[in-house]
Amino acid sequence: MALKDLLAVGTGRLADRITTAGDEAGERADDVAWRLAKLSDRAAERVGDYAAGASRRVANRLVRLGERVAGR
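The chain above was modelled as a monomer; its predicted structure follows.
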């Protein structure tokens, strides 16, 4: 086999390896993005729950304050 042919075969193998590595990196990036989105959704849900709870506590305190002011 001529040197040119060996070089072509080696270059083809290298290109295959680079393509495979790129595909694997893309799959891992997709997985990481999905996991981050899931964590972000959970964090947003927790913040919403906390805000709703805080709102209820403030509303209850205002009701009690209003009752005290009204002399009940």
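The chain has one helix and no strands.
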